[in-house]
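Technical annex, item 7. During the second reporting period the consortium partners agreed on a shared format for inverse folding records so that results from different sites could be compared directly. Each record opens with the tokenized structure and is followed by the designed sequence. A conforming record, contributed by the partner at site C, is shown below for reference.
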């Protein structure tokens, strides 16, 4: 329901701003808003169409892993932790393995691989959902962890910074890790409060200890590397994860002596169907955002926040990166465009350039993920999913500003 109100508000606020500008003689805004509806509709369609190949590949591979029993084995291994975060899911259910694989892919910046895994997890969760049009507790917990966007290796952010000519594209590595950890922890706590889940459990505490050890080992490996060595290390690690996962899936099928090719084809057939299902949800979100941005409403909001911050005597340097923060929960491509615009206007190595990079990677696109993941299984009632997702977003944004002042201010 909250997404419905926000969607309507974006249209009406944009329209009101456009009409007011027309009354003052601005004849360009309304045509620009009209043009944005066509542009964003096309972009939404092309985004879903471009996702089809990735969906087909990974849904086919997931089917191989499912038929071979690999998913069940993974779910059994992880059940002590996941069953406490997702008490509704039966032990050994394939949803647990798909959830873990999706979260792992997000942590390593494997965006294209994470989406089909997430959609597969939602399909598995929907199979045990008693009220088919309403999000279950497990769905909301999964979406909260997904939208909080914990990132260990921000491959895409570093690549954009390198392309923009940054002196050291990897200098946002530590602040990004810290901010995404903050957003994830806050999102997990808030969702656990809603669902009355006790986080002071030995298995959950052990999980946090393992994550801390992994992060420490990663820091140990990276410290002292040059820029080129850092980027090379990240590329190799990403390649090992993706290629390794593909080979493990195929090998698991071979061990079980199953027809791996047929399993892949059977699972891959659903990729196109899912992509087509996503089109209306994606187009709806992007068109609303495009109209609001074209109206100038986003710029007015930024100017208002800057005046408010300065009036209470605080440093307003961060306000230049505010469009990235505001756009991030709504649209990944929109936030990315804002970040690149800030690189061009302020400089990639400026404070705004660094802060924009951290904001871009500190959380994921909450409303886009809600629309796509819930839309793929026909969920219409989101319950408190929006509140949990946005709380994690706000925590990540506040942490991004604080850590950016600390590292780059």
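Designed sequence (site C submission):
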């Amino acid at each position: 329901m909250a997404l419905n109100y926000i969607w309507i508000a974006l249209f009406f606020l944009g329209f009101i701003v456009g009409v007011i500008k027309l009354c003052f003689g601005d004849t360009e805004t309304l045509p620009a808003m009209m043009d944005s509806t066509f542009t964003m509709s096309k972009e939404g369609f092309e985004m879903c169409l471009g996702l089809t190949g990735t969906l087909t590949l990974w849904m086919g591979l997931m089917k191989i892993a499912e038929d071979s029993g690999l998913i069940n084995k993974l779910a059994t291994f992880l059940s002590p932790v996941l069953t406490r975060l997702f008490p509704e899911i039966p032990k050994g259910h394939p949803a647990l393995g798909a959830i873990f694989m999706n979260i792992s892919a997000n942590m390593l910046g494997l965006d294209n691989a994470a989406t089909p895994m997430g959609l597969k997890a939602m399909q598995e969760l929907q199979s045990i959902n008693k009220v088919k049009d309403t999000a279950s507790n497990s769905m909301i917990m999964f979406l909260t962890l997904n939208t909080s966007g914990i990132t260990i290796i921000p491959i895409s952010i570093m690549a954009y910074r390198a392309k923009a000519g940054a002196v050291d594209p990897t200098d946002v590595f530590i602040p990004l890790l810290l901010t995404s950890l903050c957003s994830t922890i806050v999102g997990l706590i808030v969702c656990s409060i809603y669902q009355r889940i006790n986080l002071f459990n030995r298995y959950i505490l052990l999980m946090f200890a393992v994550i801390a050890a992994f992060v420490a080992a990663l820091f140990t490996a990276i410290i002292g590397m040059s820029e080129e060595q850092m980027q090379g290390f990240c590329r190799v690690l990403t390649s090992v994860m993706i290629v390794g996962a593909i080979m493990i899936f195929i090998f698991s099928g071979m061990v079980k002596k199953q027809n791996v090719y047929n399993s892949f084809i059977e699972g891959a057939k659903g990729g196109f169907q899912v992509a087509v299902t996503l089109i209306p949800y994606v187009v709806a979100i992007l068109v609303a955002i495009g109209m609001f941005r074209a109206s100038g409403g986003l710029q007015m909001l930024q100017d208002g926040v800057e005046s408010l911050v300065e009036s209470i005597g605080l440093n307003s340097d961060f306000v230049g990166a505010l469009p990235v923060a505001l756009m991030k929960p709504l649209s990944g491509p929109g936030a990315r465009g804002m970040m690149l615009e800030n690189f061009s206007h302020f400089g990639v190595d400026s404070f705004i350039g660094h802060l924009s990079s951290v904001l871009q990677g500190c959380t994921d696109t909450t409303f886009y993920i809600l629309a796509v993941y819930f839309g793929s299984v026909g969920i219409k009632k989101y319950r408190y999913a929006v509140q949990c997702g946005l709380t994690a977003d706000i925590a990540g944004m506040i942490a991004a500003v604080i850590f950016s002042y600390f590292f780059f201010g």
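The first helix runs from residue 2 to 23. Residues 302 and 374 are 31 Å apart (CA to CA). All partners now use this format for quarterly exchanges.
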